[in-house]
Write a structure and sequence with these properties.
The chain is an alpha/beta fold and about 400 residues long. The protein is built from ten helices and 17 strands. It is globular, with a radius of gyration of 21 Å. The protein binds flavin-adenine dinucleotide.
Length: about 400
């Protein structure tokens, strides 16, 4: 196949979405709901990258350390998640298992900042002493002197969430999918993208794909697509490794966070341990050092784990960006190129709000969240000024 005849569709779609992670899946869902047709392309399988690898905590880890731009998206999405998961269960029979388990943060160093943030944002947060920690989670190591308890926080099984989203998309006759197909570039005429070029694995021929508009949700790879268009996104890969244990009996009920490492108890007895933060470009390998670091952190919180070995280790590439503030909106001066990327450590929690905002911007509706901090053309100095360096 070559040339425009190569378009794997009966007609030119309204939108071509590049990248089938959580962000690509959700914007496709929103656009289909609005009556548009969508072609979703992924260079691999759908949701096999960061959106599969993540822990699925529906909150930033230390939410008070982030800018209001991150909090605005997180708060919107936290309200929406239970509804989304139920809706997908009804549509597809796949349960993404949203669990409102609560999150217990042990010995958080900036407790007074946390409490004033929670008060001003209206979030439930309790300060616990040793006795309350021991009462709530009896298997934790002793010696934690204080904790911050956020009862409303939950987690979702992100691989299942993405599977459910794809199953739901595939029910629509206006949806098409191309996997193992990498978008390699765009052709631009008079501020409009007119074509995308793509290569399918195993084929030497280049495909030419047309669409009414183009949306980049390529996660950590976003700059590879924007660079040739002379757009600097500041999005870069940041590796995260995770471990999984299978527990003979549950050891904790809530998520637990200590010194940046966390435990997530799944409904079926699995326990996830996350995560490393590594600046190794696009290298996604698991390392012995990463395994040891996570294992030590896990045993430090839950001593019973010293009798078990992790059953699995994996890693993923987060779409890192200054302050974890994503870029969402039109890539000006182009009239039909949009981007939604750079959610960094919080892409799962922020995704529903990011997609909602982008759909509003595409449709020219009054946005429900102020879009300014996410503007793709925001001067990087303005972005830095509006974020807090401590999240790195
Ligand atoms: C270890 C780890 C733990 C995490 N834990 C959490 C958590 O608990 N909570 C949370 O909110 N977030 C978490 N995150 C972050 C979250 O997973 C990411 O921010 C989010 O998944 C990013 O989604 P995405 O759709 O932008 O990117 P991705 O899921 O990476 O999807 C991008 C897709 O684009 C495709 N692609 C790229 N380039 C091209 C191209 N040229 N052509 C075609 N396709 C292309 C890729 O194949 C990929 O499928 C974690 C991440 C990691 C790695």
């Amino acid at each position: 196949m070559n040339g425009e005849e190569g378009q794997n569709l009966k007609r030119v779609p309204d939108f071509l979405v590049v990248g089938g992670g959580i962000n690509g899946l959700l914007i496709s869902r929103n656009l289909l709901t609005l009556g548009a047709s969508v072609l979703l392309i992924d260079q691999s399988e759908v949701a096999r990258e960061a959106s599969w690898a993540g822990g699925g905590i529906v909150s930033p880890l230390y939410p008070w350390r982030y800018s209001p731009a991150v909090t605005a998206l997180a708060s919107w999405a936290q309200g929406y998640y239970p509804h989304l998961v139920l809706q997908l269960l009804a549509e597809t029979g796949i349960d993404a298992e949203f669990e409102q388990s609560g999150l217990l943060m042990l010995d958080a160093p900036d407790q007074s900042e946390a409490v004033s943030w929670a008060t001003s944002e209206g979030k439930a947060m309790e300060v616990w002493g040793t006795a309350q920690i021991c009462d709530a989670e009896r298997n934790l190591a002793s010696g934690f002197s204080d904790g911050l308890w956020m009862p409303h926080l939950g987690h979702v099984r992100n691989p299942r969430l993405c599977k459910a989203l794809l199953a739901s998309l595939e029910q629509s006759p206006s949806f098409s999918l191309l996997t193992h197909t990498r978008v390699t570039g765009f052709e631009e005429i008079d501020s409009r993208i007119v074509k995308a070029y793509a290569n399918t694995a195993g084929s030497a021929e280049e495909q030419v794909l047309r669409a009414g508009a183009f949306i980049l949700t390529a996660g950590a790879w976003t700059q590879q697509l924007l660079g040739p268009l002379n757009v600097e996104s500041g999005v870069a890969p940041v590796k995260g490794q995770m471990l999984q244990y299978r527990l003979p009996k549950p050891l904790i009920d809530s998520m637990v966070l200590y010194h940046g490492k966390y435990l997530i108890p799944r409904r079926d007895g699995h326990l996830l341990v996350g995560s490393t933060l590594e600046y190794t470009d696009f290298d996604k390998s698991n390392t012995e050092q990463g395994r040891k670091m996570l294992q030590n952190a896990a045993v430090g919180m839950l001593p019973d784990l010293s009798r078990l070995d992790p059953i699995r280790q994996w890693s993923g590439l987060r779409p890192g960006r200054e302050g974890g503030v994503p870029m969402i909106g039109l890539v000006e001066p182009r009239e039909n190129l949009f981007v939604n990327a750079g959610q960094f450590r919080n892409g799962l929690v922020l995704a529903p709000a990011s997609a909602h905002l982008l759909s509003e911007l595409i449709m020219g509706e009054q946005p429900s969240i102020d879009p300014k901090p996410y503007r793709p053309t925001l001067d990087p100095r303005e972005l830095m000024a509006s974020t807090r360096a401590s999240v790195f």
